[in-house]
Amino acid sequence: AAKEEGGNGFRFYSSEMNARAVARMDLESNLRRALDEKEFFIEYQPQIDLVSNRMAGLEALVRWRHPQLGVIPPAQFIPLAEETNLILPLGEWVMEQVFLQCCRWHANGLANRQVRVAINVSGRQFDQADFVEMVKRLLQQTGAKAHWFEFEITENVLMKDVQRTIATLRQIRELGIHVAIDDFGTGYSSLSCLKHLPLNRLKIDKSFIADIQTNADDRAIVSATIAMAKRLDLEVTAEGVETEGQYGFVYQRDCDEVQGFYFCRPLPADKVLDACRKHLDES
Ligand code: C2E
Ligand code: MG
Ligand code: MG
Ligand code: MG
């Protein structure tokens, strides 16, 4: 309302609620500026194959280097970017950057290691009628190969309109891009729908891994989820593995891959090839 009255509106805000709205407005214009000023950057977290002990994949994770506030994690700006639709240009920027980065890596030695790179796709992006067209265009423009990539999509996004999801996933899969269901267990998957989705991978949310050693319920959930994923012919990744005990638990239950601080934190792009050559590729 204050906006409509002209001026900058600030003097109309007095309550705490309005103060928060102002802070949000500020963050929103900050986000817009950040996109123009190229303040975002991408880190990559290794995903380790439990059988070979090698790096099987990398997940691209966006960060914001704010000139005053320092590095801001995605949990603090992705939700707002989604609300304001800024996720569309941001998500496209991330995808383009990752595609370009992978072209450079493949020119420099990642090719023979068959490391797949995962990109998070938000609901807003996935819902765009021209999402697949956008992906195709970026592949063409950058020269990146579809089979290098996997899209991570959360279960609520996938379950929203299952018929449409199936059609879109088929198009993505036809391009040669793999699809993972992200944060599995935190949303509302219908198991009967799950079996109809053309997925490649299920990622168990880190909240179930966190207390695996002290909480019998979490152990039961993780064991059952791994078993179900295998029955459905999906690869399964445990997220947020921080300790040897957590690693041992999912290893014993035949989980395919782990991602977590126990093995490696998200890395700046220029550290990835080294990590790949050194401790993650010795076997
Ligand atoms: P996510 O897709 O589930 O990504 C995994 C998150 O878990 C990352 O947090 C990662 O740093 C963190 N993580 C990995 N291993 C461990 C561990 O052992 N312990 C703990 N405590 N955390 C671990 P991050 O980078 O802060 O990202 C948070 C979320 O932001 C992501 O969750 C994803 O939903 C979203 N996000 C990140 N980048 C993008 C992006 O480019 N596009 C979209 N749409 N969302 C993104
Ligand atoms: Mg993810
Ligand atoms: Mg996740
Ligand atoms: Mg595997």
UniProtKB/TrEMBL annotation:
It comes from the Bacteria. Residues 24-280 form the EAL domain. Coiled coil: none annotated. This is PAS domain S-box-containing protein/diguanylate cyclase (GGDEF) domain-containing protein. The chain holds residues 401 to 683 of 683 of the full protein.
